[in-house]
Amino acid sequence: MGRILPRDFFDRETETVAREMLGAIIECRTPEGTAGGMIVETEAYVGEHDPACHAAVGRTKRTAPLYGRPGLSYVYFIYGVHWCFNAVTREEGLPSAVLVRAIEPVSGIDLMRSRRGPKVQGVNLTNGPGKLCEALGIDGSMNDLSLQKYPLVIRAGESLLDEDIAVGPRVGITKAVEWPLRFVIRGNQWVSRAGSR
DNA sequence: TCGAAGATTGTCT
DNA sequence: GACAATCTTCGAG
Q1: pTM, whole model, 2 decimals?
Q2: Residue A141 CB lies within 7 Å of the nucleic strand C
């Protein structure tokens, strides 16, 4: 298993971090056990000038971690049903983050299956922001934590070539949808398909 | 204090 | 493909 990505890794251009997070391993340790997966899909949210970013409406109690140090987690509850996990990037005062939209299970797969339920099969285990959070056991208690220590860490994975990475418009939002800030591993079957209709 | 909207998912048609 | 579920946050009254 690779080294834990240092805080410096996140203290760069958000698009760069989003691109290089592909292939990295996210690992979550809970009392029930440890589960981890390779990141195969990310989206960049780049500050107050990005109308789709939560920070576009200004600093609130909810978006406070976005304004914090690079390398923090930002976990938020959406639609009253699902959690979404982000890694905060850039220096303090510039609120941007990378949304992890899909992972490929690597470890603790039985644990993920038991959390997601017996009916869930195949790629449905983790091919969406809400799904991967449930599978890994991420919830509100994981918000605003350092990603350099447990329970939640991101480890270096295999390095990818440019031709392994596809860039496209973001998914599931209503503002600035056409901005090419979505990064996926080309051809990976675990990539989320939400919104690709 | 109330109403509206949201970086989604599961289920039904 | 369409729609409901369900909660947190924000802005208006």
Answers
A1: 0.93
A2: no
Closest nucleotide C1' to the C-alpha of A76: C8
A61 touches strand C (CB under 7 A): yes
Nearest nucleotide to the CA of A120, by C1', is B10
Under DSSP, is residue A86 helix (H, G, I), strand (E, B) or coil?
strand
pLDDT in tens, A171-181: 888 888 888 99
Name which of A40, A62, A69 is nearest A148 in CA terms. A69
CATH topology for A7-185?
3-methyladenine DNA Glycosylase; Chain A (3.10.300)
Residue nearest to nucleotide C6 (CA to C1'): A80
Residue A1: other Cβ atoms inside 10 A: 12
| Contact predicate A52/A182, CB 8 Å | no
